[in-house]
Amino acid sequence: MSLSKAILLLLIGATHAIPHIPRSPDSTIQARAVCTPTAGGSSSIDDVPAIKSAITSCGNGGTIVIPSGSTYYLNSVLDFAGCKGCDFQVEGLLKFASNTAYWGGKTAMISVSKIAGLKIRSLTGQGVIDGNGQNAYDLFAADSSYDRPTLLYITGGSNIEVSNLRQKNPPNVFISVKGGTNGALFDGLTLSATSKSSNPAKNTDGFDIGESTYVTVSNTKITNDDDCVAFKPGANYVTVRDITCTGSHGLSVGSLGKSSSDTVKNIWVEGATMISSTKAAGIKTYPSGGSHGLSTVTNVTWTGVTVQDCDYAIQIQSCYGEDADYCDDNPGNAVLTGITFDGFTGTTSSHYAPVTGNLNCGSKGTCGVTVSNYKVTASSGTGKVLCANTPTNLGVACSSGASG
Ligand SMILES: *[C@@H]1O[C@H](CO)[C@@H](O)[C@H](O)[C@H]1NC(C)=O
């Protein structure tokens, strides 16, 4: 065999790229290029270069396949640069290295930056992305300055779909969307972070949705140790539908206003089952004064939320990150308008019983909050909701004494 022929075969072997894509005169029925990266078969071989070369070969409108039954070891950042309208099909296992020295200070394990059109999905539903975060949980417990990466970090871009697969044990957040992403769908995902040691899987937010428009999360189950879905500064037009969260800090706007003026608006959450969360749904804003900025939250609805064993069903914190003395001097000034908690049912935990909700609006802010069809009971029986600075037409009977 000639050397050039051998090199050609090697190149083809590296990605199984189809060298000749049948071209139809009608471009709309062209076959898509399909690449299957070759796995090294050992955790000491980083499969990221093979996957990147598959993205280079097939990323422009083509398909990259991680076959069923296969394991790919990802020992470095997987960057989707070069993907444009590509379809990344994960049927096997993508397993990240647990090397805390390498990952320390990295922002992303999977980086999706300014990509127009990307599907990361499993057709079989068997695909798994494993962030292998146990070493990070243990190191972070000993040293909270250890800076851990997000498993799937999406910034900018448009038309992103992640569906029908499982993600487990990210060192930090599962999925982050920011940087002005326009249009992202997350559907049929199972996200679970569980520590095997006594150190919790800290800060494993399911979704951090920041500056973006038209992000949807649907049919998704999350087990983790921090916010299930966090609506962060700049989130606009987010829909969350049919979600089950276990062990989290809930479906949460914020925190906002820590060191800049922050806005969250046009959020719709419908159909959530919230199990053993610190709260099912809520808003957390920093108060005025210091270096804090103004928080503005507009048009946010949670509807149809089943509460099981959560400490609070509903919570508003206007003194987040500061203590009550600080807030006596620098009251909460957040502007909340068009905020609706509708159709909450179920039972809270014994933690604050008989209190099931704690709505502490800022005395210098605006509290445009409505609670309707609130049927949450305390584990001890009839519950009560604590309020401060809420409107007279709030929609639920409340007692004084709200805090936080
Ligand atoms: C409120 O937010 C929902 C959900 O994003 C959106 O459909 C609706 O148009 C918004 N309403 C207004 C008045 O902007």
TrEMBL record:
The answer to whether keyword Magnesium applies is: no
- A single GO BP: pectin catabolic process
Source taxon at top rank:
Eukaryota
Active-site positions on this chain: 249
What are the record's GO terms for cellular component? Answer: extracellular region
State the UniProt keywords alphabetically. Answer: Carbohydrate metabolism, Cell wall biogenesis/degradation, Glycoprotein, Glycosidase, Hydrolase, Polysaccharide degradation, Repeat, Secreted, Signal
What molecular function does GO assign, one term?
A: polygalacturonase activity
Pfam family of the protein (one): Glyco_hydro_28
Report the subcellular localization. Secreted
Signal sequence segment = 1-17
Protein task: Pectinolytic enzyme involved in the degradation of xylogalacturonan (xga), a galacturonan backbone heavily substituted with xylose, and which is one important component of the hairy regions of pectin. Activity requires a galacturonic acid backbone substituted with xylose.
Q: Which family does it belong to?
A: Belongs to the glycosyl hydrolase 28 family.
Q: What is this protein called?
A: Endo-xylogalacturonan hydrolase A
Task: Please report the organism this UniProt entry assigns to the protein.
Answer: Aspergillus nanangensis
